[in-house]
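User: what does the whole thing look like in 3D?
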Amino acid sequence: MGSTQDESLSTFKILVATDNHLGVWEKNPERGNDSFETFEEVLAIAVEQDVDFILLEGDLFHENKPSRQCVLRCMELLKKCTHGDKSVQFDFLSDAAENFKHIKNPVVNYMDPNLNIGVPIFSIHGNHDDPSGLGQHCALELLSSSGLINYFGKTSDLKDINIMPLLLEKGETKFAIFGLSSIKDERLFRLFKEGKVKMLRPKEYEDKWFNLMVLHQNHNKQCGMINHIPESFLDNFLDLVVWDHEHECILQAQVPHESAPDSFHVIQPGSSVATSLCAGKAVPKQVALLEVFKRKFSITPVDLKTVRPFVFAMVSLSDHDLDDATSIMENSPVENFVEEKVRDMIKESETQITGHSKQPKKPLIRLRVEFSNEAQMFNVVRFGHKFAEVVANPEDMILFKKEKKEVKKDELGIDNDAMDAAFNDMEVEETRVEDLVRQYFAGIENQVQNLSLLSERGLCGER
Amino acid sequence: MGSTQDESLSTFKILVATDNHLGVWEKNPERGNDSFETFEEVLAIAVEQDVDFILLEGDLFHENKPSRQCVLRCMELLKKCTHGDKSVQFDFLSDAAENFKHIKNPVVNYMDPNLNIGVPIFSIHGNHDDPSGLGQHCALELLSSSGLINYFGKTSDLKDINIMPLLLEKGETKFAIFGLSSIKDERLFRLFKEGKVKMLRPKEYEDKWFNLMVLHQNHNKQCGMINHIPESFLDNFLDLVVWDHEHECILQAQVPHESAPDSFHVIQPGSSVATSLCAGKAVPKQVALLEVFKRKFSITPVDLKTVRPFVFAMVSLSDHDLDDATSIMENSPVENFVEEKVRDMIKESETQITGHSKQPKKPLIRLRVEFSNEAQMFNVVRFGHKFAEVVANPEDMILFKKEKKEVKKDELGIDNDAMDAAFNDMEVEETRVEDLVRQYFAGIENQVQNLSLLSERGLCGER
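Assistant: Here's the predicted 3D structure for the full assembly of 926 residues, as structure tokens:
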């Protein structure tokens, strides 16, 4: 893409990043800088790649009320990156008073005659930095009020959502960005079901626009039917959806991987920092370079090099023949085994060293140890002392979990077909647990089937 | 001043305001806007008067951690006033890296090539908005980081204070501003006593500079010897001192009214909003227009017209012949008397109506009622209901105070001369209550005088 001169002049080049979670672990002397270092790297990539703009997709801040220091550090980084003489090469065609109507002085920052903006940033809010408190403002507004970012996609009417896209134009490319800042999944699910979410497409040159949707919601079914947004809810006219909130980085341009019509692609850049120590956060962190020429696009993942090495592993003690015996004088065989495993993981973390001068070297280590017998457990904090100098999280490297006895699903005696029918028929906006139970019994009709105790998972519909 | 063409080109015109206390009473539906309306007026006066810059002297925010809405409203007002094409007519000669060394990117905002600043603001912090929390940042830094104000006078070393002045030049006038942001009075008192507060004067053209000092400390003795800064502590080379923190507006240019050498003038602009309902806050609110040509200056007070009317009065029931009798059916004679008094005060408040469209009309009323007999009290909240539509603070108009029986000071039997001697001799940095008591007894030596119980006031030295 962008091979000919004309194409290049009409190609939007955008850095897409999300879930930077500035301020996470801020008070931890070892890890307090991590989120800032990587955010600085993200911004530096944007400058280096000479992008037209940066698209941030929520959870810029980890805390709803970030510390003053956190906001200040963020402002300083943004000012350094966004201010400058580089001239912005695209036009802003939509009505800023509509796109930014939640702001007193609604103007796109690079067209503010009193600011010299070289790299504009557009951002929606996430679930961590959503509006709260007096006047329902969010932390991003501290940035947009001073012209550091363009904050869009804030919904003022939570009963009827009209998404006004940002309309941008660069040469021959017309680019519409439909932003929807984070809303409680259940509420948004209902609004979609009720047809209360409308995307306002420009009438003119309707087929010429590259339509991007940006949202910060659960993508996958978590627990339950209604606390995520199925791809099938989204309009078919979209070309690409950037789905955020889930922290795993999935950046290969891909066709929808669920039941939606084969109409748009979905990418999920994932977080730039490990906010918690689980398997999904141990995949390499990347940002996306999105290039758009007319209605074609390409995605180039860019590895982040300042991210702290993180190795996650699981081990089940019952798979290993270990003596439970402990004595006060020496470590138990289990502890020795775990120690060896941790040392292997530390060694493995070295493969994640990138050579970037600002990458913290001490790795995050998380070993999930499944045990069947409490006698196998040991004091993990004391255990951590041995690694205080080489690991970033010595105190919580080891997570003991009791092995679960597997229960075969059909032993529960739930009529899954009746459950499915109940869920599929329901008018979501009216669903109450009572109705669900009634429908379930209506479904099984006169079958000779006993009432089983429904677990929470059963009620939520995940089978 | 400024009568000839040359003088005019060399005359600094500065709006001086302080203690705006943005966000005070923010959650009160009637009074929540007051601080913002008046701050907007202050900024508008600056624009209308075409000043060179605005000097704010602390307590811009009422809360150390102002609400997000409060910061946002402040940012919006500042942006509207300070951004613009007006060209700044004075040069900044001092080293911004020194004046603003607490900021990541220390530059005076109107010389930042990426900002278009027409009306620069310089501000110190007060005791309400002083640094706190992680990294010891103050709320003003949210404004200075985004280039909305120039925050100066922050002291990083609380053991040794070197005040680097802002050095400004306009035509023939050289203007040095020594800013000292709020520090605990007791600590600053000690530092002055120890000679640890130094003002770094420019050597060049030493006698040509107009030297202004800005500080936000207790000016008058409150309770005690050491929790205010005596004028005698300040250097004689100063021409003018702007003293803030105390809310009463005293704007006539005046000679020092205490023991300081007859060397500098002191003004005290006072707060722009009534933060509490006492006599000192019921004087008219003003800001100062300060004009400086070479080493001459003039002060022009400017009335603020959006300030809510406020009438304060005191009444002693024992001065009036009122029957204490109450009945359930009708108001007591005292209540009727107080009601009449309040109605007079409301009438009096009308004289404070300025005609400004944004001035709130419902007055603040505070009547302090001194009683000698509890039976004279009545329910002030129920009383307030009658005035709910005409008064801004119906629930706390009336403050009952028990009349004090006057005790003649010398009945206490304290040897005031010995107390004075003890205070004057003491090395302040070493003072402990034990020493003070010892010194007191040393002072009275062999006099036949009994030990009296010292009240707190006695201990603090206020007699």
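In plain terms: The first strand of chain B starts at residue 11 and ends at 17. The longest helix of chain B spans residues 333-349.
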